Amino acid sequence: MRDDDIATIMRAFGHPVRLNILRILATQQQGQCCCADVTESLPLAQSTVSQHIKVLLDAGLIERKPHGTRNRYCIRHDRLSELGVAFGGLLQGLTPLAVPQEAELA
């Protein structure tokens, strides 16, 4: 996963409403629901929920599936797995190498 993909996903994770939307989607029995279902679970207008869903879609964290006259949304578990692997590499690249102890320096 490229750094700009990781940054886009981190921006999407950066708002509590979007984290709540992901939790709502994760707890659905069929693994998917429509925007109205999400709106019922949040104290927000449908238009606000739609804007947050668009950010999650653009980040590739959820996908849209047409269902009659509505769209259903579900989490992209493959994308979350990729992110987990990328985080492992990212965090490993940020940890310092073994620092010599003072006794070894003397």
Features:
106 residues; alpha+beta; 60% helix; 14% strand; elongated
Task: Write up what this structure looks like.
With 106 residues, the protein is α+β, with helices and mostly antiparallel strands. It contains 6 helices and 3 strands. The chain has a 3-stranded antiparallel β-sheet. A hairpin with a 2-residue loop joins strand 2 and strand 3 (70-75). Helix 1 (3-13) packs antiparallel against helix 4 (46-58) and helix 3 crosses helix 4. The radius of gyration is 19 Å and the shape is elongated. The termini are far apart. 15% of the residues are buried.
Gist?
By secondary structure, the chain is of the alpha+beta class.
